[in-house]
Design brief:
BirA Bifunctional Protein, domain 2; OB fold (Dihydrolipoamide Acetyltransferase, E2P); RNA-binding; eight-stranded mixed β-sheet; alpha+beta; five-stranded mixed β-barrel
RNA sequence: GGGCCGUUAGCUCAGCUGGUAGAGCAGUUGACUUUUAAUCAAUUGGUCGGGCGUUCGAAUCGCCCACGGCCCA
């Protein structure tokens, strides 16, 4: 960073606490290397607890276990000529016991000057206190990093939502539950990756910057490539690229990566979010429902140890077979007064929708109207794990038509707690049907729907080479993690959620 | 985009119908060689989110703005 950028840096908050710590840092600089990098950390807190918590005082004393341990000081208690402190590392917390007579008067006085948040390396021998807490009796103590900013008070921790999101590092230092959430997130992604790999799927990476944003109905972010002087779109979905790979013979393929959608923010929407998409040739949407059911059930067992999920006051059972019903069945279940035989009649659906104060467009057919009715009256009632099938063709431009009823497609969405977690279908592999559907989307776009899809000519060309019968699915990882961690907002499961600049 | 709520010390929060801004923890100084939200004594600390207005007087009332939270579209 040069001087100019420094001078452009807005001043950040300073206060007397920071000033006092800066003075201590200045002294450290005068005494030598203030930021040493030669401490050799050999043990983690948790492995020491695992190995030695079980031993009694006498056994520990006999073994005289020497350790070299480092961490952030989260707690310090000075009692005259001896002090206790807790050092926290990535794995957990370990107590240290520092005595003047063991490390010398000069070092001990320096230790008394330290602040909560300082990072220490210690060498010493393990012992147990009167209350049987595993503790390092320190023989050598090194201040590795001076902390200049005071941490939140230990009892309440950091509760301010905004600060948790903007300064996630403080949140992670202070809140065990936040660390737990992000650990479960990591474990979730690892589990899924392993599950699919074990099932013969191959993981790939496809473009995040696309010339034609496809694969979903959403508004994209636009960016610009200088050398080529052209607009590019951040992807809204990887779908069309993954299906090109199926054409190319990668018959079972998946990607876990970020999608970007230029839409409003809410507790369920972040502009960038993580999606799993996977495709399997010679499978249909029912195979994928079965796979999803098994994967979600096993995932829950693996990462939270139970298939009974407590979520914001509700309880969901992932053990018993997931319910399955069609869109039309769901609409009738929650609107028993409707005429089931007229749900494919656009005039009928329009009058019902308008009676529900749904804002409709003239161009909408029965399928779109039916989905609006479904979303308004049924979706948020789907609490227990439920697959909804038979989505109207009109709202499923990439899905294969149903053989018996071309009004609907071989598609499902998966709901838990009233929230859509997954969307899958037998893929439309008829290039001529796909071309027509794209054409329909283009006319929607021309009549003002800026979320409608573009015509992707190369994708049609790929299909013309022949894509085997295939089923594909997308699972929203963030929402899945919300469910598993009992998180009320998507921002709680994204390390650095999007915020307006301070 | 609309509605409601919030923004006060480093952190967590009080602050009534307008009258010199408070607590706990943290910090500072001192005591204490097995503490667990340690204890004891003393003590510092504020542009009350920003701006404008009403008023003799505004953290408090009104308007505007910023940021956040929740709900709705």
């Amino acid at each position: 960073m040069n001087d100019e950028t420094n001078s452009n840096t807005p001043p950040i908050d300073e206060n007397k606490y920071i000033a006092l710590r800066r003075e201590k840092l200045t002294q450290l600089r005068e005494q030598g290397q203030a930021y040493p990098n030669d401490f050799e950390r050999k043990e983690f807190a948790q492995e020491l607890h695992d190995s030695y918590d079980g031993l009694n005082r006498e056994q520990l004393e006999e073994q005289a276990v020497a350790v070299s341990f480092a961490g952030r000081m989260m707690f310090q208690r000075v009692m005259g000529k001896a002090s206790f402190a807790h050092l926290k590392d990535m794995s957990g917390t370990l107590q240290i016991f520092v005595q003047r007579d063991a490390i010398g008067e000069e070092a001990y006085n320096a230790f008394k000057q330290s602040d909560i948040g300082d990072i220490y390396g210690v060498k010493g021998v393990l012992f147990k206190t009167r209350t049987d807490e595993l503790t390092v009796k320190v023989s050598e103590l090194t201040l590795l990093t001076k902390s200049l900013r005071p941490l939140p008070e230990k009892f309440h921790g950091l509760t301010d939502q905004e600060q948790k999101y903007r300064q996630r590092y403080i949140d992670l230092i202070m809140n065990e539950d936040s660390r737990r959430v992000f650990k479960i997130r990591t474990q979730t992604i690892s589990f899924i990756r392993q599950y699919l790999t074990d099932a013969g799927f191959i993981e790939v990476e496809t473009p995040m910057m696309q010339v034609i944003p496809g694969g979903a109905v959403a508004r994209p972010f636009i960016t610009h490539h200088n050398a080529l002087d052209m607009e590019l779109y951040l992807r809204i979905a990887p779908e069309l690229y993954l299906k090109r790979l199926v054409v190319g013979g990668i018959e079972q393929v998946f990607e876990i990566n970020r999608n970007f959608r230029n839409e409003g923010l809410s507790t369920r929407h972040n502009p960038e979010f993580t999606m799993l998409e996977f495709y399997q040739a010679y499978a249909n949407y029912e195979d994928l429902m079965n796979l999803t059911e098994d994967m979600v059930r096993q995932l829950a067992k693996a990462v939270v140890g139970t298939t009974t999920i407590d979520y914001q006051g509700d309880q969901f059972d992932l053990e018993k077979p997931f319910e399955r019903m069609t869109v039309a069945e769901a609409v009738m279940k929650y609107n028993p007064d409707l005429d089931a035989s007229k749900l494919e009649d656009s005039d009928y659906c329009r009058s019902i929708a308008e009676g529900m104060h749904i804002k409709t467009e003239q161009s909408w057919g029965a399928g779109k109207l039916l989905i609006e009715i479904f979303e308004k009256t049924a979706e948020d009632q789907l609490m227990q794990p439920t697959f909804i099938t038979a989505y109207p063709t009109e709202v499923s431009p990439l899905s294969r038509r149903n053989d018996e009823n071309p009004f609907v497609t071989d598609r499902f969405e998966f709901f838990v707690g009233g929230r859509e977690l997954a969307n899958g279908f037998s893929e439309l592999n008829d290039p001529e049907d796909q071309a027509e559907r794209f054409q329909h989307q283009v006319s929607e776009k021309e009549s003002g729907d800026d979320e409608a899809m573009h015509y992707d000519a190369d994708y049609i060309r790929a299909l013309e080479y022949g894509m085997p019968p295939t089923a594909g699915e997308g699972i929203g990882i963030d929402r899945l993690v919300m469910l598993l961690t009992n998180a009320p907002s998507i921002r709680d499961v994204i390390l650095f959620p999007h915020m307006r600049p301070e």
